[in-house]
Amino acid sequence: MDNTSTMETTAAPGLLAGKVAFVTGAGRGIGAAAARLFAREGARVLLAARTKAQLKAVTEEIRAAGGVAEHVVCDLADAASVRAAVDRAVELYGRLDVAFNNGATVTPPGPLEHVPEADFDHLYAVNLKGSWLAMAAEVAAIRATAGTGAIVNNSSVGSLRGNPELPAYGAMKRAVNSLTESAAVTYGPEGIRVNAIAPGSTLTEMIRTWEADSPGLLDRLTARTPLGRAADPEEVAEAAAWLLSDRASYVTGTVLRVDGGAWA
Question: Which of 93, 124, 169, 250 is flagged as catalytic?
């Protein structure tokens, strides 16, 4: 007689099960990896970026894998576009629970005096003002629908100390850190957590662009990284997913380094 007992097992719910997630810069790199991951972890996702063809491709990929996703074209430098994109998440899914503000732009590496004024202004409009616009719209949507939730901003380890190769980019990301901390203090009493992640070198189109402008940049960054390699975008997305999830329920106002130990 077989005395082996059987036990029904139930798959653990996803990290973001039941949540509606909004992701900017979702057409490629860390943003696309995050959108895929959030959907696998049970979220209904709205992908936002300027790159319609890329958004469509990632959205279709998520759907093909069984996830729920839609996309919207959004220019982070345009206030009306940002508000409309966040409102679209509520129109589609009836609520907003979490948001990952990942979208950003770059300038070529070089010392401060070599940054054209137009490039500085564009960095400000997208990387700083765009984050501020998105956070304001997201807080309003979370407050009006889910009531409580979480926001994660994508910063950079380049914001944590002097940054001679990317001074303007680092300055904008440092300001994002300040906005993150201020928002955490402001909205924590309402149950809205706000954190940031600070990735190190990550294998995205952004760092490949920097490498083309400054040959050897990736090797220099890797040499300063104890883990001895750049991150895959998926590894950075995992940190954002955890901070957005209820498993990080007592974490707010932090800037979490995801840098392979480079800034240790």
Answer: 169
